[in-house]
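Researcher: I've been going back and forth with a colleague about how L-lysine N6-monooxygenase MbtG might be arranged in three dimensions. Neither of us has a model we trust, so I'd like an independent prediction. The organism is Corynebacterium camporealensis, in case that matters for your notes. Sequence below.
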Amino acid sequence: MSDSSSSSAAASHSSMPTFDIVGVGVGPFNLGMAALCQPLVESGELSVAFFEQRSGFIWHPGMLLPEATIQVPFMADLVTMADPTSRYSFLNYLKQSGRIHQFYIREDFYPLRREYSDYCTWVAGQLDSVHFDSRVKAVRPNPEGDTPWLVDVTGHGTIAARHVVSGVGTTPFVPEELHPALDAEGVIHSADYLHNKEWLAKQASISIVGSGQSAAEIYADLLCTTEAHVDWFTRSERFFPMEYTKLTLEMTSPEYASYFRRLPEAKRDELNRNQRNLYKGISGETINAIYDLLYRLSLDGTSRTTLRAGVSAACAPNEQATDSSTGRHRLRLHHAETDTSAVHATDAVILCTGYKAPQMPQFLEPCSEFIAKDATGRMDVGEHFQVDADNTLFVLNADEHVHSLNAPDLGMGPWRNSIILREICGREVYPVEKNIAFQTFGGF
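Model: Here is an independent structure prediction for L-lysine N6-monooxygenase MbtG. You can compare it with whatever you and your colleague have in mind.
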C-alpha cells in the first residue's frame, strides 16, 4: 500500500465511530449488559452501543400465552443480582407502572411471561445505547488502529470496537427425522404457536411432538380454547418435571460452572445430555394443572386427547407424508419399550423440539481464526466468557457445553455480565460472588 493510501485508510479509521463495547443482539442477556453499562456511560467511563436486527424488543412472541409465567423468580431480572439499587430493576418497573402493590398482594414470585417481556421493553426504551432495526453483518479484525474489531452494521456503516459482546439468541431446533415436514402447510414450531393460533383453532386434530414447558403449555391451551382432538407424543420415558429443588438450583452457581468447565469435553457433553430434565422439563405446577384439566374434561364422558410417552416421531416415507386427498399429515411413531410402530394422521403438527445455539454465529465468521474452538468446532468459552486470547471478544448464552446449567439461566445473567465488565474495565464495577453454594462439587 502506498503512503498516500495508508494515510487515507488511517484517516478513515480515525473518523469512524469507536466504542468500548459493541453488543450484538439485544435479548435479555445483552439488554442486561446495556443496563449495567448505563451508569458507566453517564460517568464517562465507557462508550457502548448495542445492535438488534428486530424492530423492537419482544421475548418469545409466539409463546406469550395469557397465563404463562417465567420459570424463575422476579429477582432474576436484568440487573438485580448485580445491582439491587438499579433503576432498571423489575421492582422499579412495577413501581413506575403503578402495579407494585398489586404484585405484592398477588404473592407470586413468578412474573407473567408477557409482563417480563414488557419489562424488558420498558428498560430498552430508556437506553439510548440500544439500537433496533440494526443488523450486524460482520465482526472482522481491524488491520489498523488501536481497536481490535470493526463491526459492519446496517444503517450505521462500519464502527470500531475495543470489545464485542455477542448476545444473539437461540434458534428453533427440529430433529433431522422431521425436517421433511418443515415445508408442509400446517406444520409449525412452537416458537410460532400464537402466530398460527387462529388457523389451528379450525383444525379437527392437532398433534404435539416433543416435551418440556412449551409443549405442556400449548397442550393445555389447545384443550381449553379449541374443540380439536389433541395428541401429545414425547420420546422421553415420561412427562418429566423440571427439577427445582434448592440443592439442585446450586448447579447454576459459580462453583458448579467452574467445576463443570474443568471436566473433559466428552464428560461435559455426557452430563449435559443426562441433565436436560433439570431445566428443560415441565414445571410441576403445570403438570398438576394439566391433570386437573383432564379430570374436568373427563366429567363430560368424552375424550378428545391422547398422551403417549416413550414415543418418537418422524416423517412417514415421502410418498405417504401427506395424504393428497385429505391434506392430513402422516407421522411415523415408534414406541421404544415395546418396539412397535404405527402411522398417525393429523391435520396439524406442532414441533415442541426446543432451540439451539449456533456453533459459530455467521457474523463472527470473518474473525473465526481468532476464536478458540473445541474438538467439535464449538466456541471454547473461557472462564470470563471470552473466546479470544486477548479478552476482547465475549459471548453470552453460547456456552452450555462449557458451563452447563449456568449458561441459559436468566438469574445468573447479571453475574456473567459483572464478570465481563470487570475484564473490560479492569476493576470490579459490581461485586462478583465466587462462593454461593453450600455443597462441594468435584472429587478428591
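Researcher: What would you highlight for our discussion?
Model: I'd start with this: The chain has a mean pLDDT of 92. After that, consider the following. The chain has two domains: 18-170+357-425, 174-242+280-351.
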